[in-house]
Structure formats: structure tokens, C-alpha cells
Amino acid sequence: MKRKPLLLALVATSLFLTAPTSAAIVSPTVRLVIAHVAAHCHVWSTATRTLGPSTKITVRRGTRVVIRADCPMDFDFAQTRGPRLALGDPRTYAGSTRAITFRKVGVYGLTATNVQTPEERGLVTLGVPNTLTLTVVVTR
């Protein structure tokens, strides 16, 4: 009957070795949407609520922010504040997504400006289109 303790030890060891380590844990992801609205064309939103044309979020270092453009316009992104980000091509096209990882603690500022006018895209809007601003506060 000495085999049972040995078998239990082997099973416990294999479970320990296959358990994820902290290095394997994926950083959290925040998902934002550029949504089309009638008043001033577009705003930031999440899956559950509208945030408006200017919003501020607080995240932990290593968080990835994924921005999806649901508005039928294309947008140019620019960083206005904070440690330098790897933004790549500044243009985000309608229906596409952009992922930005915030690796350093700090306060970041981003703008998203529509490339086309609402009229060029056949949209009806009330008022001048918003230039979207996003402030991201990154903590430890």
C-alpha cells in the first residue's frame, strides 16, 4: 500500500507544475468603443454605458486598452500627454480596433479626431463633431 502515497505525491506535483504562474497571467483588458450618436457625431462608450466625448479611466500598469471604431468614420489618434506610447499608424478605420498597452505608470492623454465629415459619410448629426479625448491614469 505504499504506492498510494507515491501516486498522490505524483498527482499533486503534476498539478502544481501545470498551474499557471504569475508570469503567465494575462494583463487586464479595458474595451472602449467610438460610437456614433446624433448629437455631435461620436462619443466614447463601453458595452454597458455611454461615457461622452471626453472621459478619464484609471488602470493598473500593464493594462491593455482596446478601442473599436463603431462610428462609420475613420479617426486619427494622437498622444498629447504622458510617457511615449507605441501607437503605430495614427489612423484607425471604421470597424477596426486599436490596442494600446500602458506599460509605465503615469497620466496619458489621447485624442481621436474624425477624418471625414458626417456629410461625406452620409450621416445626419446635430452640431459640430466632437474631437474625442481620453485620459488614462496608470497606477502600479
Q: Can I get a quick summary?
A:
It is built from 1 helix and 10 strands. The protein is mainly beta and 140 residues long.
3D architecture notes:
Strands 3-2-1-5-8 form a 5-stranded mixed β-sheet, with no helix packed on it. The protein has a 5-stranded mixed β-sheet with strand order 4-10-9-6-7, with no helix packed on it. It contains 1 helix and 10 strands. It has 140 residues and is mainly β. The chain has a single domain (26-139), classed as Immunoglobulin-like.
Overall shape: it is elongated
Give the ordered list of helices and strands: HEEEEEEEEEE
- Which ranges are low-confidence, i.e. pLDDT below 50, for 5 or more consecutive residues? 6-25
CATH class: Mainly Beta
Our count of domains comes out at 1
User: Largest sheet, if any?
Assistant: 5 strands, mixed
Q: Helices and strands: which structural class?
A: mainly beta
Q: How many distinct beta strands? A: 10
CATH architecture annotation name: Sandwich
Report the β-strand fraction as a percent range.
35-45%
Task: For the largest sheet, list the strands in their spatial order.
Answer: 3-2-1-5-8
Average residue pLDDT: 84
**Through-space gap between termini:** 51 Å
Features:
10 strands; Immunoglobulin-like; 5-stranded mixed sheet; 140 residues; 1 helix; mainly beta
